[in-house]
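Data card: per-record layout.
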Amino acid sequence: MLPEWTVGELIVHIGRAMDAIAALEPPDPRALPMSLPAYVATYAAGADAIATTTRELAVEATGGELDWIDAAWARAVETLDALGPGDRVMVARRGPIRLGDFVLSRVVELVVHADDLARSMPGQSLPTIERDAEQLVVRFLLDALADKAPGKALEVRVPPYAAVQAVAGPRHTRGTPSNVVETDATSWIRLATGRWGWSEAVVMGRIHASGQRADLAELLPLL
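The structure for this 223-residue chain is written out next.
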């Protein structure tokens, strides 16, 4: 959830996320690229600054938020066309990162905030999230979990997209895993990004968990 944000501010924030592509700069040749999990992990420290900038831009865009996001998208596409193929290292707002990873970070922003927007406007007919985009984000968040809690004791499944093994402990070798967490794509995205708490999702019946290690409450959210 995004406490105290208006729908207009959320729309402008989505546009700003796309404008970050147009703001990419050539890197220092000596710079080492950040991994995608490391890059998105910097968001928390900058949350207050992100909110302040978003609100300032929203004031400028009042009444024309959709035009503003369309223009931001056009600038992003123009920049990517100019850069052409190749997964080079670029300097983004929060440090050096490979172009492919940075574009994936924009997909994460779009998918997560599109869901925020849908929940902010119940009953409205809004475009659905593209399946390919949703799959990319689910897989990234599963990989982020495995990076945060490496191991083979727990299998986390988000059908039909992907599954990952994580959490230290006895390794599962064959047959049905003794520790399993299974949920749907929307629920996993909301859990991994802090929109839902673990206990809340369990009560709603959005998580099926079995085994002593099938509890991710201490590991979530990831972003």
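Known properties of this structure: Helices lie at 7-22, 36-40, 47-61, 65-83, 99-120, 131-148, 185-192, 198-203. The first helix runs from residue 7 to 22.

See the next section for split statistics.
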